[in-house]
Every structure is written in structure tokens, then in C-alpha cells.
């Protein structure tokens, strides 16, 4: 594999991590979030600042970054998740625009110039580059998938499924709506924070426009394309949307149109996504007698 | 003081234009409970069609109805082909569908109309006015006159006509309205016709006012106007107008005077979050 | 009396100008089956929503085991021992019937974030859920998606979920409607069995025969107000109740 393909794959792995986080919020808990890129950005800026101005290494900063992103998720989620669905959608869009402009206009965050000089990641004394950085991302992706799976198998995950299907009934069964929506929101935003940290140290230079609303929409596209609420859907979605532009390089001018058209056709004709319940792909490869009660 | 009044006039003009776009969203939300992001693409289409017909014929009197008709068609097509089949799913499904339509249309505008800014060189057949040193440009006069006329017309349709009654009944409860003999599918389509035609007018007004028509001119209104219908109270038409006017004036004055380090486009969202914390049902919404 | 379980004290709930429940008081003892009856729109389901915490009362108090619970959210009421079914069934549609019941089995786990991190799909929870499903007679449907069941079975699933909460007070909102005769007989037996375990039952029922047959006492609501209260035979012969159900309608027809 050449350097270029490795870079592409590294991006895909990072986006898959972030999309998995979005899937926890949208897929498992049924809470629409169209501002996920904001938390990706918060993770990236936090790690960039802690390692450049704070003097920490990537590894010492990482737990703080994940905690901080999750904590900001908690603070922003607390009022938002009390709102009606439609309000929540618009509020999360708003959060994205506001966070982006804070990065862009507050000098502490580097303003329009962004933040540079972010150190690369070293492990056991060697700088991680190329394939090694990809492996690191894949390890984190595996960890994120493992945690997602554990979450779907925990009582908290079940509570989220119940809330997603029928909030009043779930509440009458002892599930506090706000507590478990927040749990999913914090978990999902923390994953976005992890992805952001990896992104910052891969690029070594970040600016506010990397984390705009468009990115939130592509994150959502990945989740929808792969299959909302499935374990592997976000990974598949990230892979397809990441590889597609490379395959259709000759059609570069139509790339955005193609992305939008895929999302539109998908949501119109197969809203459960490629791996969702009752999808074309599933029906093709159905294994008889297999219980798919969860995941 | 002179500057202040000029700013104020500009602010109200912006607010009037916002309200023309936002009303379409509020109408659609009312009858369908869908956040119609693609409405901003309809508005952009209005500007392009208007500009095209104007360039061909040189007549605004032809351009405006042509754009209104084209947008009405586009809006209804979006409703029929995308929204109606998706109504049975949870609300985020049609919302994502709407965003996808919006992005696809933006790309089509770019591919067809070119990625650059086109100018809309319409001249108004009357001069501006100067009142005590405050200059009121013909564009501002037109915006005021046209939006007032459109708002009055909309108010008349919604409150005085059978269609308006059907729209209000459908907003209350689609099933009951259906049971009362209201053809809700026709009502919904007419709502899109109405909202989209008004968006076309807004598109042309903005095109002329800023002398700019470009593919992504809908990007900011697409989401800002969502914030506005939330601030106004989802589905409340007077609320939508009030929120739009307040934002237009607020943006213009705050950016003009107070030197806020944030761009004007996030003001709508900050206002929205403030309003939601203080009054979760919106300015004029009821629970 | 120490075996008093639930007391409504002058409870009202207004929606705008509408007084859905207006100054209603009644009480329920441990192990009692109380029927809540009344014409459509009498405020029965609103009463349930008040007791189970879906709505907070506009006025008055709801006391469960000596604790004032007015304004408590549903999940706290569930934790305090109130289990309910919904008249308009609310299954967790994409989850299987078995998983639906397992949701309710997690009641104790939902109290804190840490306790909710344990695995839910264990052998023990599956077994327990299956037993409850068999008790209500839909054990054979455990693996089906709950959203696709016919209404009668969805009502039984509602009951199974409420039972899985191991409640002290069971609220049944028209659980018997839409059931065939023999199904209803089975559930009646089940309700009596539940009461024998010391669980109190408050039930809304349109079928008078079922309501009269099952209940120790009846409370009659009309236009949000308490109309009458007493043993089934007293209620049956109460002229006010007869009028509320038939009288005005009948006299209107006659004139």
C-alpha cells in the first residue's frame, strides 16, 4: 500500500470512530444530533492545546481530552435533551455553528489561523507515522466498537433502546429519560473527542473550518448509510463514503452531488441502512435461525 | 442618529426577508411536522429562475411569476417524492432526507449556474427617498412594499379562506382534519405551493438587494431560519414573523455597533438557545 | 389503618380550561382490587396518568405508603412500586417480546449509572421474563418482534411488563378489551392470583361484567368528578351511576 492509501484509510478509521459515537446517540438512544462535528472539534482543540500550550504528551492528554469532551457533552446535553425532538435537532445544529465560531473568533483558539505545531504521537520512543498511525487508529476503533457492543449489552443500553422506542412506557418501567439519554450522549461525545484527538495529531494543524456543520452531516450520512443502530454500520458507512471519492476521482466535480444523491436514495428507499433490520443486504445474506434481538 | 436609522431600516428589511423564508418553514412544519431544510434550496432556485427570466426578457414582472411557478413546482415535487413517503418514519428520517435534497440541489445549482456569483442588475423604476438626511434606497422600498403585500396576502389566505382553515385544521391534528372531510394531502401540497412561491419572492428580493445570486446563497438561511421558527414557537406564524424581524434588526444593530467577536450568523442560534432556556415553547408558541 | 396503600386527596388535573380530573379522592388498601369505571371522557385514564406520574396534579396530593408523590416522574413511581399498562398499547416495537419484558426486569438497575452497566441479556433474566410471558399466556411469542403482534397479545405484553416490575400496585388500563372470552377468563384468574400475592390492583374496564366480577370495590367517575364509590352490588343499583351511563342518553332519545 502506498502512503496515499494509508492516509485515506487513517482518515476513514478516525471518521469511523466518530461515527460510532454518533451511532450511540442516534442509533441506540434515538436522539437526533446534527452537531456531532462540534465534539470532534472540541476533542481536537483540547488535545492540540494540552500538548502545545499545556506541555503534555498525547498519551497523558488523551484521558483528559476524552473526559473534557464528555463533560462538555454533559453540560450541553443536559438542557438540550429535555427538549422535544424537533427542538433538539435545531439546537444541535446551533451548537455546531456556535462552537465553530468560538474556535474561529476567540484568539485563545488560534482564530482564523487555527492551531499548528501539534506534536506527533510517540509510542515506546518511536514517532508513529504512516502505517503505524493507522494501526493505532484501528486499535482505538476496535476499542470503540468493543465499548459500543458492551453498551448495547448493558442495562443502560437496553434502557436507551426502550427510550428510543417509547419514552413514556420506558419511563413507567423505571428508566429516567434524561439520565439515559445523557449517558448515551456523553458516551457518544467522548468517542468523538477521542477521534478529534487522533485527527489533531495526524494533521498536526487544525482550524475551525475542519469541524463545520457539513462534517456533522457527513457523519450522519455514514451512520444512515451503514445502518442506524447497528454495530458495524458506522464503520461500513465511513468506509464507503471515504473510498467512494477515490473510486470516482474522474468525476470529482460531481462528488458532492453523488454524496447527496446516495444519502437521499438511501434515506428514501432504505432508511434502515445497509446493515439495518430488513435491509436488502441483510435479506441477501440472511443466516437462518439467528437471533438478532440486539445489536 | 442618521446612521442609526439607516441601519434600522436595513435591519427591518433583512428581517422582512427572513420572515418570507421562515413563514414557508413554519407553514410546512405546521401541516407536516417536518423541518424543511430544503426550503432554502427552493429559495435559491427562485433567485436563479428569476435572474434567468429577467436576463432573457428584461422584465421583473415576468421574472417574479415565473420564479414563483417554478418554485411552487419544485416545492410540491419535494413534498410528493420525498416527504410524504417518509412520514411514517421517526422525524429525523425526513429531516435527513431534507438535508440531502438541500445539498443535492445546491450542487445542481453549482453545476448548472456555475460556481460563481452572478449579479442581478435590476433597476427600479422609481428613485429613492431622503427623509431628514436618511436615505431610503429603492431596493429597501421595494422590499418593504413587497414583503408587506406578501405578508398581508398570506395572513388573508391563512385566516380568511377555506384553504387556510384546512391548513389550520391539519396543523392541529391531521387525522381529525381528515375525518372532518379535509383533503389533507391536497392541503399539504397547497401549503408547499404557497410557501415555495413566497420563498421565490424572497430569493429574487435578496438577489436584487445584494446584487448577488450564487449556488450556496441558501446555506445560511437553511439553518438560521430553522432557529427562527423555533424561537417563534414551532408552527406559529406570527411568532415566525416576530422572530425574523427581531433577528434582522438585532443582527444589523449588534454587528454595526457592539463589536461582538462572533459572526452574525451564530447570533440566531445563540438567541435560540437563550429563548429555549427561558421559554421552551418559543416566543409565541403554546405548549 | 396500616394496610392503606394509596390515597388520592382532592386531586385535580386541568388542561387549559378543561377539568379532566376534578377534586377526586379515594383510597386503596393492600391486596384490594378496585375498579375505576365511568363513561368515556370521565377522566379514568387521566387518573392513571396522575397516579403513575405521567402528569403532575394541578391540585391535591397522591400518597403512596404514606409518602406524598404528587409531581414524581413515572420512573420514580415505578421504583416505588407502581406498575401500569397503557390503554393505547406502547410496545418497544423493534424489540422482541422477551426483550420488552426484560426492560422492566431492569427496574432496580436503572437507579444509578454504575448499576446500569451490568449485562442485561443473561440466562437468569431470560428465564424470568419467559416465566412471566407464560403466566400471561404468550410464552410462545417470546421471539417475535413486539410491534407486529395483534392487539390482544400486545395488551398481554403490557401486563407482562407491568408484572415484571414486581409492583405493589398494578394499574390496568383496559387490559381486557380486545381479548377473546377465554383469554379474558385466563387474565381474570391471573389478576386474582396477583391479588392473592398481596398486590393491589386498580383497573379501568369498559366491560361491566368483568369490572363487577373482579373488583372488591368500584369508584365511578363522571366528567372528572367522583360520582359514587362502593361495592359492585351497591354501584349496580345506584341511580346516579345508571343515569351517568344511560340516563341522559336514554332520556334524550326518548324526547
TrEMBL record, chain A:
<dbReference type="Pfam" id="PF02653">
    <property type="entry name" value="BPD_transp_2"/>
</dbReference>
<feature type="transmembrane region" description="Helical">
    <location>
        <begin position="33"/>
        <end position="50"/>
    </location>
</feature>
<dbReference type="GO" id="GO:0005886">
    <property type="term" value="C:plasma membrane"/>
</dbReference>
<keyword id="KW-0812">Transmembrane</keyword>
<feature type="transmembrane region" description="Helical">
    <location>
        <begin position="6"/>
        <end position="26"/>
    </location>
</feature>
<protein>
    <recommendedName>
        <fullName>High-affinity branched-chain amino acid transport system permease protein LivH</fullName>
    </recommendedName>
</protein>
<feature type="transmembrane region" description="Helical">
    <location>
        <begin position="130"/>
        <end position="148"/>
    </location>
</feature>
<feature type="transmembrane region" description="Helical">
    <location>
        <begin position="56"/>
        <end position="76"/>
    </location>
</feature>
<keyword id="KW-1003">Cell membrane</keyword>
<dbReference type="GO" id="GO:0015658">
    <property type="term" value="F:branched-chain amino acid transmembrane transporter activity"/>
</dbReference>
<dbReference type="InterPro" id="IPR001851">
    <property type="entry name" value="ABC_transp_permease"/>
</dbReference>
<keyword id="KW-1133">Transmembrane helix</keyword>
<feature type="transmembrane region" description="Helical">
    <location>
        <begin position="182"/>
        <end position="202"/>
    </location>
</feature>
<dbReference type="InterPro" id="IPR043428">
    <property type="entry name" value="LivM-like"/>
</dbReference>
<feature type="transmembrane region" description="Helical">
    <location>
        <begin position="222"/>
        <end position="244"/>
    </location>
</feature>
Automatic annotation (TrEMBL), chain B:
<dbReference type="InterPro" id="IPR052157">
    <property type="entry name" value="BCAA_transport_permease"/>
</dbReference>
<keyword id="KW-1133">Transmembrane helix</keyword>
<dbReference type="InterPro" id="IPR001851">
    <property type="entry name" value="ABC_transp_permease"/>
</dbReference>
<keyword id="KW-0813">Transport</keyword>
<feature type="transmembrane region" description="Helical">
    <location>
        <begin position="188"/>
        <end position="210"/>
    </location>
</feature>
<dbReference type="GO" id="GO:0015808">
    <property type="term" value="P:L-alanine transport"/>
</dbReference>
<dbReference type="GO" id="GO:0005886">
    <property type="term" value="C:plasma membrane"/>
</dbReference>
<keyword id="KW-0029">Amino-acid transport</keyword>
<dbReference type="GO" id="GO:0015190">
    <property type="term" value="F:L-leucine transmembrane transporter activity"/>
</dbReference>
<feature type="transmembrane region" description="Helical">
    <location>
        <begin position="12"/>
        <end position="31"/>
    </location>
</feature>
<feature type="transmembrane region" description="Helical">
    <location>
        <begin position="61"/>
        <end position="83"/>
    </location>
</feature>
<keyword id="KW-1003">Cell membrane</keyword>
<feature type="transmembrane region" description="Helical">
    <location>
        <begin position="95"/>
        <end position="113"/>
    </location>
</feature>
<keyword id="KW-0997">Cell inner membrane</keyword>
<keyword id="KW-0812">Transmembrane</keyword>
UniProtKB/TrEMBL annotation, chain C:
<dbReference type="InterPro" id="IPR027417">
    <property type="entry name" value="P-loop_NTPase"/>
</dbReference>
<dbReference type="GO" id="GO:0016887">
    <property type="term" value="F:ATP hydrolysis activity"/>
</dbReference>
<dbReference type="GO" id="GO:0042941">
    <property type="term" value="P:D-alanine transmembrane transport"/>
</dbReference>
<dbReference type="Pfam" id="PF00005">
    <property type="entry name" value="ABC_tran"/>
</dbReference>
<dbReference type="GO" id="GO:0005524">
    <property type="term" value="F:ATP binding"/>
</dbReference>
<protein>
    <submittedName>
        <fullName>Lipopolysaccharide export system ATP-binding protein LptB</fullName>
        <ecNumber>3.6.3.-</ecNumber>
    </submittedName>
</protein>
<keyword id="KW-0547">Nucleotide-binding</keyword>
<dbReference type="GO" id="GO:0005886">
    <property type="term" value="C:plasma membrane"/>
</dbReference>
<dbReference type="GO" id="GO:0005304">
    <property type="term" value="F:L-valine transmembrane transporter activity"/>
</dbReference>
<keyword id="KW-0378">Hydrolase</keyword>
<feature type="domain" description="ABC transporter">
    <location>
        <begin position="6"/>
        <end position="248"/>
    </location>
</feature>
<dbReference type="InterPro" id="IPR003439">
    <property type="entry name" value="ABC_transporter-like_ATP-bd"/>
</dbReference>
<dbReference type="InterPro" id="IPR003593">
    <property type="entry name" value="AAA+_ATPase"/>
</dbReference>
<dbReference type="Pfam" id="PF12399">
    <property type="entry name" value="BCA_ABC_TP_C"/>
</dbReference>
<dbReference type="InterPro" id="IPR032823">
    <property type="entry name" value="BCA_ABC_TP_C"/>
</dbReference>
